[in-house]
Amino acid sequence: DEAVNEILNKYDTYLEALYSADYSFQRDAVKTAVGFLLSGEWKTLGDLAEENYLNNPKIKDRYSSKDDYLEALPLAEYKSCSMDLATGSGKSFMMFGIAQLMLCEGAIDKVLVLCPSLTIEEGLTEKFKTLNSRKDLVDILKAINPKYIQPEIKNASETILPNDICIENIHAT
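^ thats the sequence. predicted structure below, dont judge the formating
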């Protein structure tokens, strides 16, 4: 989708500032995820999965039918995505980047990041607050979109307002 690529390309400077050269795969992954989320080509993850099932023999080898494949996908009825990455590969940086681009584009009005424990919640909150306070990143986003509003990083014990990023452990929900 040419319009989506145009949107994504305007964030290249931001993504290069957010991710080091050693983690260039993160830039590509963020652009792929945001590209899917912004694209009008697929309305749900299930739509994309159905197309992939029809075109990918490896998926057909693993699942006996399209329905079996779709049943195995969590949240297939929504426009959702997941990324499987090793420990220490920068998942938190990617979540932050995806959240910021989607907020900056006005595609969403708030973000909920669910994590599996209090320890991870604390670590994510610290990382997100550190990244969110980087003046260079904020300045780049404001140059891209003069209406950009820097989000607040919160947890679910606070009132979540538009443009906030809420980080919470799944047991609290």
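The CA atoms of residues 135 and 141 lie 10 Å apart.
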